[in-house]
Write a sequence for this structure.
């Protein structure tokens, strides 16, 4: 969440990367803490399709992605994370960020931006949720 992360860090790190942007984000090599749920949410907010090669994402979109990663992580921390099954936070309560998911777990439901059905695909053995209209 440091300011260094905003200054073109993702764009520079992605140069020449042919891997899809979502698994690349989740690898931990570039940024730590962006798991499956948070990657899907940040990519949706940034309008980036999760299958796009990381090295082909424009600098403008990567800067937007950096900001949205910070926003999603900050919101998730404030809400105690995302509880999907049996996770409990430090106070023994489930994470409330699950109620703020815009895309994760919403396959077939209307996109909050364009109302078209949300989609699901599998990347690196993980479910990825996205809007085929809003994320290009």
């Amino acid at each position: 969440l440091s300011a260094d992360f905003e200054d073109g860090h993702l764009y520079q790190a992605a140069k020449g990367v042919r891997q899809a942007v979502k698994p690349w984000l989740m690898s931990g090599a570039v940024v730590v803490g962006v798991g499956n749920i948070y990657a899907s949410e940040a990519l949706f907010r940034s309008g980036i399709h999760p299958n796009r090669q990381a090295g082909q994402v424009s600098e403008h979109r990567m800067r937007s992605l950096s900001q949205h990663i910070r926003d999603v992580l900050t919101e998730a921390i404030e809400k105690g994370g995302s509880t999907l099954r049996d996770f409990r936070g430090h106070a023994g309560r489930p994470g409330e960020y699950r109620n703020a998911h815009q895309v994760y777990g919403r396959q077939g439901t209307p996109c909050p931006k364009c109302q078209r059905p949300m989609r699901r695909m599998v990347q690196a053995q993980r479910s990825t949720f996205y809007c085929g209209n809003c994320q290009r």
